[in-house]
Amino acid sequence: MTGSGTSWNPGADGPVADVEFRGSLVYAGSAFARAGGADRANLAAIDVTTGIADSWAPSTDGAVAALAVTADTVYAGGDFATLGDLSRANLGAVSASTGQPTAWNPGSNGAVTTLALNSSTATLYASGVFTEAGGRQRMRAAAFGTATGAVTGWDPSAEEAVNAIAISGSRVLVGGAFSMLNGLPRANAAAIRADGSIDPAWNPGPNGIVYALAASDDGNTIFLGGAFTAAGGSTAA
């Protein structure tokens, strides 16, 4: 295998912020008007083989920054007021097959930039620039039931931006530009338990902003990316 590209070229006419793969489709979201050779307002499903747009065509009136996909549902977060012609404040869901909006509608008072789905607990985690989500105060990070959209008690309450979320077993890893979570010192990265409390065992303390997180399948290794030069007590440029 070489590092050369393939002929797959859907050709969105604007930047793509997130892509999620499911079955024979690649779901894409951002701030484009065309993708896969068809008119698509910020959301599209592209055939994984041909690069041609599927008939799936929900629309938003603003940019989509993050997606999470199940067999039945596509969750979208971003900076929009409508999703599929229904009022949805920065966060909503549509059918993965028809593109029609579902009743799932927690809403937030600011843009949503990251989504992470824990299918085993039927919970969707979100971060962004909001201070309220699901009708309750939530500082830049919140969690919602995937069935009802109700906001959960998980509330890390970050005083500055949360840019990345990853699931690692029963913990939720968050990264960003914060120095405090729930009133406790945490420099740019932390692990939050399901009840919202901070796991003291994981505190790498990167000396700069974290933009990306990923966990190995066994949960024993956490990968961080961002604008830092040291983490976990070692140089990490």
Key structural traits:
single chain; 237 residues; mainly beta; Methylamine Dehydrogenase, Chain H; 2 domains; three-stranded antiparallel β-sheet; 43% strand
Written description of the protein model:
With 237 residues, the chain is mostly beta strands. The chain has 2 domains: 1-155, Methylamine Dehydrogenase, Chain H (7 Propeller); 157-237. It contains no helices and 24 strands. It has strands at residues 16-22, 25-30, 34-35, 38-39, 43-47, 64-69, 73-78, 82-83, 86-87, 91-95, 112-118, 123-128, 132-133, 136-137, 141-145, 162-168, 171-176, 180-181, 184-185, 189-192, 209-215, 222-227, 230-231, 234-235. The strands form 10 sheets. It has a 3-stranded antiparallel beta sheet with strand order 1-2-5, with no helix packed on it. The two termini are 29 Å apart. The model has no long low-confidence stretch (mean pLDDT 94).
